[in-house]
Specification:
Structural class: alpha/beta
CATH class of the largest domain: Alpha Beta
Largest sheet: 7 strands, mixed
CATH architecture of the largest domain: 3-Layer(aba) Sandwich
Strand content: 5-15%
CATH topology of the largest domain: Rossmann fold
Number of helices: 19
Radius of gyration: 24 Å
Length: 476
């Protein structure tokens, strides 16, 4: 093994970062830059990283800043922020007898996320009175933490922000925007390493958190590091506290004391006691059930394409504050979207049997749609019936071969069954479809998940499969 690989392994162990083949050239250039600045040999630099001195700690801070990207903006992922504002935070506020709210934004980059959370809390609790509100943002990159503490941002950080919110909570300053002092006072920032540091950590006040938000962080981590951090997050949450991650970031991870809750078509994880966890229903896949049908699908028995209106359904849920009331599984409307919404609502409440019956009723009236088959597959998987889930996914693929989601879900079921050949085939099919899509386009059936994010996930799965197949071949 070359010294560069030794350094790469050391960095991966210390930070959890997963350097794919395509990342290694960038890694090599950045490490070489630090070796030149250090004015020593590559071996001297490697020994410096292994030390436990102040000089070593300083170098790790510099290296972390070089190797991590701090791309963020205010209210990134509107659907998740709507979930937090309309459902999660109101629930936490309502049940807090001590009038206390503690939130951790992990991997906060330059601070846009924790400040966005503070704005929501301010809107929900305009007169905070004797409420104890603490929002903590952490990142491994010390430079972005320093930037976050200043609370000054350029126009680029507001590219998805409503003009009204910016005018209300920011003031113009020399071509930039400065956060309102009241909002800034609600947030504290810390520099910490999610992999190396121990949590809960009273010294950083990272304990008894009601909500941990860690989005678009795990996509850069080794699966083993993800599992370690999720366990520490669980220990740091209070009973009943929530963990919100990016879509699909916890695929194939053991969640233990975290139970999936599907609210308004989105998945959030909630900490439950070990006793409750032992008797709770099987955990739903951390990739959400179908959020909305495709914008255009072929209607059964007609050549005309039926246009559905996902935006209307999303708006309806936002204002009502809860999912549509489930109908009887035997009495369903003819509208495909309404039927699926009611089936999802049943699944959200853990009524998997009723939700499955509703899906089968939908299939009878919409025989050419892949959507009820996909939803039924996820319900079957949640019930531990992998065989039925695979059959439903295959039918969805037959009806609409261009859908990415069924290919990927099928591949991950095969992967969990250690059927590596079929897993690779299905995931490769999903990958080929993703390669033909614009990187920033959203993937049907996976709400607010972009093609580039899912392509990286597929690449990681295939890389892991390649290693498993090699190990299997070596053993034989």
């Amino acid at each position: 093994m070359t010294l560069l690989l030794e350094i790469m392994e050391l960095v991966a162990t210390r930070t959890g970062l997963n350097f794919r083949d395509r990342d290694q050239a960038v890694f090599r250039n950045k490490v070489q830059e630090r070796i030149v600045r250090y004015r020593g040999s590559a071996w001297d630099y490697y020994e410096l990283l292994q030390d436990e001195t102040r000089e070593s700690a300083r170098e790790w801070r510099v290296l972390a800043a070089l190797l991590t990207t701090g791309e963020s903006y205010f209210f990134r992922d509107k659907a998740q922020f709507a979930l937090l504002k309309n459902r999660i935070l109101p629930e936490l506020i309502k049940r807090s007898r001590q009038r206390r709210l503690r939130i951790w934004s992990a991997g906060c980059s330059s601070g846009e996320e924790p400040y966005s959370l503070a704005v929501i809390v301010k809107e929900l609790l305009p007169a905070q009175g004797n409420w104890q509100i603490q929002i903590i943002g952490t990142d491994i990159n010390n430079k972005v933490i320093e930037q976050a503490e200043k609370g000054i941002y350029t126009e680029w950080s507001f590219r998805q922000t409503e003009q009204q919110l910016r005018s209300r909570f920011f003031s113009k300053r020399e071509g930039c925007w400065e956060i309102d002092p009241d909002i800034r006072s609600m947030v504290a920032f810390r520099c910490c390493n999610l992999v190396q540091d121990t949590f809960p950590d009273p010294s950083l006040d990272l304990r008894n958190m009601d909500l941990i938000v860690c989005r678009n962080v795990f996509i850069y981590f080794h699966p083993e590091a993800v599992g370690q951090v999720v366990t520490k997050f669980t220990d740091t949450l209070t009973e009943g506290g929530f963990l919100l991650t990016g879509h699909g970031e916890l695929h194939l991870q053991s969640l233990h004391r975290l139970k999936s809750r599907m609210i308004d078509d989105q998945i959030i994880l909630q900490k439950v006691s070990e006793l409750t966890s032992a008797v709770s229903p099987p955990v739903i896949s951390t990739m959400p059930l179908p959020a909305h049908p495709l914008s255009r699908i072929r209607s059964a028995g007609t050549k005309k394409e039926l246009r559905l209106n996902p935006a209307a359904a999303s708006t309806k849920n936002t204002f009502s504050g809860h999912a549509a009331k489930p109908a009887s599984a035997d009495v369903l409307p003819h509208d495909l979207e309404t039927c699926l919404e009611q089936a999802r609502s049943c699944a959200d409440q853990g009524k998997y049997h009723d939700a499955a019956r509703m899906c089968r009723s939908v299939i009878k009236s919409h025989t050419l749609s892949p959507l009820p088959y996909f939803l039924l597959a996820q319900i079957s998987e949640a019930n531990g019936d992998g065989g039925s889930a695979k059959q439903c996914l295959k039918k969805a693929i037959y009806l609409e071969p261009s859908l990415v989601a069924p290919h990927l879900e099928l591949g991950e079921i095969y992967l969990s069954e250690k059927n590596y050949g079929l897993a690779a085939k299905s995931i490769q099919s999903a990958r080929e479809l993703l390669k033909g899509m614009p990187p920033g386009s959203f993937i049907p059936l996976y709400r607010d998940t972009k093609a580039l994010e899912l392509l990286r996930h597929a690449d990681d799965l295939l890389a892991g499969l390649s290693k498993k197949e090699k190990i299997s071949a070596d053993r034989t």
